[in-house]
Specification:
By secondary structure, this protein is an alpha+beta fold. About 25% of the residues lie in helices and about 30% in strands. Helix 1 packs across helix 2.
Length: about 250
């Protein structure tokens, strides 16, 4: 007999949603297990237990038969990193053909105004590996700022600054070029707090004018055009997960 699994893990592994999304839905009381409101510690067996979301059945057994799929998207600015938006704003899934986007969800987040490399997958285990803080996966950004930060301010950014009462991890921050009105930085982070780069830049007095994510680990956005996407190959996955072996 198949052993029961935690509901969040089961939904994630089936490509229905991420574990974080499942936690949010559980807290909101939108997931039910065998007719009762589901709780964070509940366990279930695919194809045996009944799971519903907002009263609609979640077809878990069928979803588990799908192969694992992951793609790289060049997210344009003005698009939300979510599967659907109740206010009708454009989402990343709308950039994909319906047959391609079926069962995929974003790995991590890029805020609405930012652009660049974003993964979408139906592989819950991969999503957890890439987003869990213990793995420290790097993300590389290019940020265009108002004004030119001083050497002292760049040094403070590299060492870590307080956000919400907790110091950020050390970061790689390099000044790529400057102009009469602004500057461009290349930034490598190993954590992903909400709007982290924008908030630190504001704290230092140099607001972000434009923010682009260039790479996830060693997997670079490259020449992929804004709004375009491509499936990941085995070599891409090796680049994405290479740093875990170090």
């Amino acid at each position: 007999m198949t052993a029961p699994e935690r509901l969040q893990k089961l939904l994630s592994r089936a490509g229905i949603m991420s574990r974080r999304q499942a936690d949010t839905l559980l807290q909101a009381g939108r997931l039910h297990l065998n007719g009762q409101p589901a709780r964070p510690g509940d366990r279930a067996v695919a194809g045996v237990d009944s799971i519903t979301l907002d009263g609609q059945p979640v077809h878990l057994a069928a979803a588990q038969q799908q192969p694992r799929r992951t793609l790289l998207l060049h997210k344009p600015p003005g698009v939300l990193c979510t599967c659907r938006d109740p206010h009708g704003r454009p989402t990343v899934l709308e950039l994909l053909p319906p047959a391609v986007g079926q069962g995929l969800y974003p790995v991590g987040r890029l805020d609405r105004d930012s652009e660049g490399a974003l993964l979408l997958t139906n592989d819950g285990d991969l999503a957890l590996r890439l987003t869990h803080p213990r793995h420290g996966h790097s993300k590389t950004y290019r940020a265009w700022l108002v004004g030119i930060p001083s050497a002292n301010r760049l040094a403070a950014w590299r060492s870590g600054l307080l956000l919400d009462g907790c110091r950020t991890r050390p970061a790689q921050v390099e000044l790529e070029h400057r102009s009469a009105t602004g500057s461009c930085l290349r930034i490598v982070l190993r954590e992903g707090r909400k709007r982290q780069i924008r908030r630190i830049a504001d704290q230092l007095g140099h607001p972000v004018r434009r923010l682009q994510r260039l790479a996830l680990g060693a997997l670079a956005l490259g020449s992929l055009a804004s709004g375009s996407w491509r499936w990941l190959k085995t070599s891409d996955m090796n680049l994405l997960l290479d740093q875990e072996a170090r």
